[in-house]
Amino acid sequence: MTNIVIGSGPAGRLGSYELGKLGQDVILIEKNHIAGTCLNEGCMVICALSDISKFIDSNNRFNSYGFIKSQIDVSYEKIVEKITQTQEKLRKLNQIENESVGNNVIYGEAKINDDIVEVNGESFEYDNLLIATGARPHIPDVKGSEYGLTNKDILKMNEIPEKLNIVGGGIIASEIANIFSTLGSEVNVIVRSKFLKELDNDAKDYLLKHIMSDVNILEDTDIEECGKNKVVTSDGNELEGIPFFATGRVPNSEIAEGFVDINSDKTIKVDEFMKTSRDNVYAAGDVTGGWQLTPVARMEGICAARNIAGYLNKVSYDCVAQTISLNTEVSFVENEKIGDVETKSIAIPGIAGPGAFWKILTGDTGYAKIEFDSENNRIKKINSISPSSTSDVAYLSYLMRIDSPLDEYSNFLEIHPSTDTNYKIIKNLWL
């Protein structure tokens, strides 16, 4: 049996690799670069730049304390060069990984014609098809939108912009704002409604005061027009600076239109097995909408692959943890299985875990808050701001996912210094 996977982002790459491991014949077709948005335009680029912003933040702190005296001269051109070199290495490794299980990787733009996929003038028949074509940045319908940059343009910039106007109030907007404000840009974030609605209000307040204090947040503000170096807001103000759109993503579902059922938001309609309206056609990742996160896309791709190979598998979206990559990580998760019940909460400032010792003097060591259902003995929600929050919340979200009662958390033994803040909270939840 021949299986074709279109798209090699997290969903397609992991899906094709899983199929290969299960002994299936696989053709993986990629339009551009293997590993998709994550490696080439998205989260890996953000992580690389965040490492630099964290270093600058630490350097500024140590200089202010007086025990290190140094000046940093940042070359954005050199940063881009080294990120690009790293991407090239990772692309090779990702291709080798897929080929190591017998998969055939083809580069070119695919077209679907019923039971045939066409690419580079060749036609391939398939028994099963997995569509994992991802998504692209949404461009607002405003005058001058052609002047706006998106995450696709971060590595095309020649220098650090003097002024930057970020349109959007979600995770991507906050990460871009943090990076470029730390690099020295004057940054405005223009939000149609509220900034970082995903976060607990107390966590958001901490973030704005201690992590993104140099960023100007304009809530309940829309844009009317963009220029090459300006944005005009709905209240008539003209803000100097390059426009940057972080206003959501659009699924690359055009390849499947008229072939499988498409939702009203243009995402491909799938069931809990990642199957489309056709029995032998599956879809996974951002093209299906929902949680547009790399780990979720991987999970969906693997789920689809196992079902294609005959191993019945359902995808579950319980307790999906998220992180905002800032100079101090912000992580959060909510247990949707716990409905609208009366809850209690415990919140404490962060303490001297890893990366936090030298922040004690300025009082910005972090913040953690856990909301819990005391009657049913379960965690409802976590918001954590600390250098170790990504690992802390990932671990705690797993315990939430398996429906672990609070009492069992008392057996948790942390590695010091690591999960100190969350450790202190969960030890007190049932007292």
Provide the CATH top-level class of the largest domain: Alpha Beta
Would you count the extended β strands for me? 22
Rg over CA atoms, rounded to whole Å, is 23 Å
Count of alpha and pi helical runs: 9
Helix amount, in percent? 25-40%
> Can you tell me the CATH superfamily of the largest domain?
FAD/NAD(P)-binding domain
Low-pLDDT stretches: none
Q: What global shape is seen?
A: globular
Mean pLDDT value: 93
CATH architecture descriptor of the largest domain: 3-Layer(bba) Sandwich
Alpha carbon gap, first and last residue: 58 Å
Spatial strand arrangement across the major sheet = 3-2-1-7-17
When the domains are counted, the total is: 3
The proportion of residues in beta strands is 15-25%
The CATH topology assignment of the largest domain is: FAD/NAD(P)-binding domain
